[in-house]
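Q&A log
Question type: sequence-to-structure
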Amino acid sequence: MSPIEPGRYAGAICKDWDIAGNANGGYLLALAARAMMAETGAPDPVTITAHYLSPGKVGAVLAAVQTVRRGRRFAVATASLTASGKPLIQVLGTFGELGASAGVVERIDAAPPDLPTPESCVRHDPVGGAPRLYGSIDLRLHPADAGFKHGDPSGLLLSRGWFRLRDDEHMDALALLLAVDAFPPAVFNGCLPVAWTPTLELTVHLRARPAPGWLRARFSTRFVSAGFLEEDGEIWDSEDRLVAQSRQLALVPLGEA
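Response status: OK
Response body:
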């Protein structure tokens, strides 16, 4: 995203970051977050929430950003991402520097998901029939969670696996925004249709910049009701640190893709 005037940034949705022609929601959020970081001068998103208004297609986009508050450690900003005047997402975020609180007491009552090696997991890519997005990232699913790919879902609302960018590209906080929305929905293993699952709202809490190497992820759903589902996610880096958490509200998929 490049500045064109105060509070306005121009960018583009590139090809091959889509699912069935619609840009991945985490990818759209990363575009908006990049503009918000530039506007606030803060190096990282700390917590960010997006409400999805319209699908994003390949082409030019504009981000209108407003800094709501700028404090000593954190800045709060809003952004609207549009394409040809059509609103795509509305975003609210708090920005700062991840790692600025290093050395404080921590307590983690959880652990990274127990996964087979990436080589022993199931590669999820367009060669295997996955959407084009998966040609731009390297995603490996836990074998127990990959049954939906061939009509044999596990029955458990889980999606676990490994994530990295292609060619071992460096992953920063913006890559975490992509990672939390890149895995197949956990409900695909719950005997629901394998189809577009539109996100209404996505919130991401970022804890640290990831160390180099693979990310481990676990996504689960507990409630599918009234036409909605929630999905909770955890992302852990190669040093076994929790680097991001997410929760999203989405519509239940209604038909086969």
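Response note: The mean pLDDT is 93.
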